[in-house]
Amino acid sequence: MPEPVPLETHTLSVFVDNEPGVLARVIGLFSGRGYNIESLTVAETDPAARRSRITVVTSGTPQVIEQIKAQLGRLVPVHRVSDLTVEGPHVEREMALIKVQGTGEKRVEALRIADIFRARVVDSTNESFVFEIVGRTEKLEAFIKLMQPLGLVDLARTGVAAISRGSAGW
Amino acid sequence: MAYEQFTGAKILIQALIDQGVKDVFGYPGGAILPVYDELYQQNQIRHILVRQEGGAVHAAEGYARSTGKVGVVFVTSGPGATNAVTGLTDALMDSVPIVCICGQVPTHLIGNDAFQECDTTGITRPCTKHNYLVKSTADLARVVHEAFYVARSGRPGPVLIDLPKDVSLGMGPYIPPGDIQHRTYQPRVKGERSLIEQAVDMIAAAKRPIFYGGGGIINSGPRASELMTRFVEMTGYPVTLTLMGLGAVPASHPQFLGMLGMHGTYEANLAMHGCDVMIAIGSRFDDRVTGRLNAFSPGSRKIHVDIDPSSINKNVLVDIGIVGDVTHVLEEMIEIWQAKGYHSDKKALKDWWRQIDQWKARDCLAFHHSKDIIKPQQAIKRLFELTRDHQNCFITTEVGQHQMWAAQFYGFEKPNRWLTSGGLGTMGYGLPSAMGVQVANPDALVIDIAGEASIMMNIQEMSTISQYRLPVKVFILNNEYMGMVRQWQELLHGGRYSESYMDSLPDFVKLAEAFGAVGLRAEKPDDLDDVIREMIRVPKAVIADIRVDKAENCFPMIPSGAAHNEMLLGPADKAERPISEEGMVLV
Is the domain of A80 the same as that of A96? Predict the structure, then answer.
């Protein structure tokens, strides 16, 4: 057997016409061809031109990653696919809202760690906090891990948004 | 600028006329009635009423593939749409340009589980190149023109327009087709010059080269086939073609090695295995072609020309991948070859041809003749010999053993004359497809080479053939088995012929007569020529029931999971190793 090819994780920006069904086309392509979606965010970024940006974090062998880009590129409403992972430095951010329930020492500890991670409290009761945290996926995951024993009861994440560094536009 | 206002149905018909549509295949129903009403009131578009919507899409495929034009289909909502799905998938897999207009319940009922409602755009999204749900009559003209552009541009494919009844009854502006500059979809047709130059350098330096051409050459237009043949002749290199590419280079050409792949010739497959430079033109390294991937042509450098970027490096990693239309790329290749004064390496090529001739000497398509029983290979061979002088002959097929024998024994001299379901492998493709070919080419001799199992899948279209007096010939190799299923059961499942025997078959002669056609039968080898001649002579539709050897298997064969150099040449040839478990799970 040939040696298994290591999997790579890539962050792709897909610029699409914001027309009905466009997200279904993109997601259907991933499910239909057995590709991975690790994270997906989508929103209209140019309302005047009705254009949206989809950010997909995906993993696969280098050959599969190339296939994913080629397959996305041939969807009719897709303007452009850019692979931020190979195209140069870029910034990735994700936001999470994390609800932690507890009283006493655990509650104090949660607040102390939140401070270290620069998470903000966006809702509070006598026995709970909702933290808002922004950062790279790894940072969010480290924070979530620390919150688990301190009473994490609910969690919402946005998935990754990403953009290239420097002055060039899309 | 103010455009004239019409109903959606009239806009649709006008747009089709302006797109040059002459014939439409379809079946009416509630949601598409306004379109049929408009159709009734004009004389420029002829409608062919099929007997089931699946037949309409295959007929449009035959129409499109024999003419190079876009095939057009009308179906109604719900079951009309779902019946069209197989044909659409078939057209997607084989890159056939189709525009399918599908009725839909009115917009205010969409999502309400209305009568004959289904999520047509949802169902057809993965089986079309693109699809549209038109929600306003104002958008309709643009969408129709865009659909034709998308269907025929780049790698062609089926496009569906879902048309709610209120949109076809509502009023909107008719906008004529202009020079469409699509916002996003502009496929690349010119290859990158520097890559083409590198490719030609590599081609010129080859010692054991082979051209491996596919359906992309046919789709690129007749000029691509001329250029392909010219480049093959300039280089003196051997050429093989895929099932979809047959006719791109004349079958009688001395440099043609026959089809490659699972049931390809020994010489084509071994030349692919042993080559040092492979030049893939408009082919897609399908699993039926490559056999076991990790043993596929291990020592070669590979050049791949394809209009679809996702075809390149999908199954097989290549050294030079050129995205572009085959016609453009071949033109540049020939130009560069001439400009640089290239010549092939005569000595190396001579050795290579000597090797190939040794493989050819195995005569891999040989079969045992019989005096008592018609061999299916013999039937196709005679059909070919008795029709080869016919100026205008088209062959369609169903799917199975008869399809492979047709590919092996019928020699195609020209492109667009061979229509078969390659990618999806749709039994029932051949009869409606032949119908579409005959509509587009009324004076041609159109023959559906069929099996007795496949033909039953769309036999209802005999009624359409009768209605429009289409002189389609159905040539059934009747072995009373789903032959290819039986062959696999013999090779892989211990001869346990589970459900592959065709019991209670109709009397095909009487069946032909019931549909107003002529029925013929050949039971002995001596009958064969007379039946074929009579079939050609009769100016009517014919079903010819050719009773062939029930036990015959299709060879040569690369067993599933095996490599090109592990072919079985005949029934006496045992695989060097039993078919592996990995091979068993492959289809």
Answer: no
Q: Is residue A29 part of a domain?
A: yes
The shortest C-alpha distance from B211 to chain A (Å) reads 24
Lowest mean pLDDT across A110-114, A125-129, B120-124, B488-492: B488-492
Tell me, yes or no, if A2 comes closer than 8 A to chain B by beta carbon. yes
Rounded to a whole number, what is the distance in angstroms from the first to the last CA of chain A? 42
What are the CA-CA distances from residue B344 to residues A162, B241, B337, B454 (Å)?
Answer: 51, 21, 10, 46
| Share of residues in chain A with pLDDT > 90 (%) | 94
Residue B115 designated active-site: yes
CATH of the domain at A29: 3.30.70.260
Domain containing residue A131: CATH number: 3.30.70.1150
Q: How far is B297 from chain A (nearest CA, A)?
A: 16
Using the beta-carbon criterion (under 8 Å), do B183 and A79 form an inter-chain contact?
yes
Percent of chain B with pLDDT over 90: 93
- Partners of A74 on chain B (C-beta within 8 Å) are 154-155, 187, 308-310
The pLDDT score that the predictor gives to residue B499 is 95
**B3 vs A: CB within 8 A:** no
Q: Minimal Cα distance from A50: which residue of B?
A: B183
Each residue's pLDDT tens digit, B106-163: 999 999 999 999 999 999 999 999 999 999 999 999 999 999 999 999 999 999 999 9
* Averaged pLDDT of chain B: 96
Shared-domain flag, residues A13 and A42: yes
Give the CA angle between residues B180, B184, B185 to the nearest 5°: 70
In a domain, A79, yes or no: yes
Residue B500 pLDDT greater than 70, yes or no: yes
Marked catalytic residue, from B22, B116, B192, B314 = B116
Contact B126/A at CB under 8 A: yes
Domain boundary among A67, A87, A107: A87
For the segment B337-344, the average pLDDT, to the nearest whole number, is 96
pLDDT tier at B181, thresholds 50, 70, 90: confident
**Domain coverage including residue A139:** 91-163
Residue B190 has pLDDT above 60, yes or no: yes
Tell me what the mean pLDDT of segment B510-520 comes to.
98
pTM score, two decimals? Answer: 0.95
Reduce the DSSP state of residue A42 to 3 states and report it. strand
Q: Tell if the CB–CB gap between A17 and B308 is shorter than 8 Å.
A: no
User: What value does the mean pLDDT take over residues B471-495?
Assistant: 95
Number of domains in chain A: 2
- How far CA B195 is from CA of A106, B228, B290, B301, in Å, comes to 64, 18, 24, 14
Same domain, A61 and A49: yes
% pLDDT > 70, chain B:
98
Whether residue A73 and residue B310 make contact (CB cut-off 8 A), yes or no, is yes
Q: Give yes or no: B165 in active site.
A: yes
Tokens of B447: 């023959």
**Interchain contact A71–B (C-beta under 8 A):** yes
Compute the distance between CA of residue B154 and CA of residue B143 in angstroms, rounded to an integer: 18
Residue B184 touches chain A, beta carbons under 8 Å: yes
What is the rounded distance in angstroms from the CA atom of residue B221 to the CA atom of residue A93?
A: 49
d(CA B510, CA B336): 60
Cβ neighbours of residue B87 closer than 8 Å, sequence gap 6 or more: B53, B54, B56, B57, B58, B60, B61, B73, B98, B158, B426
Q: What is the pLDDT of residue B290?
A: 95
- Is B42 a catalytic site residue? no
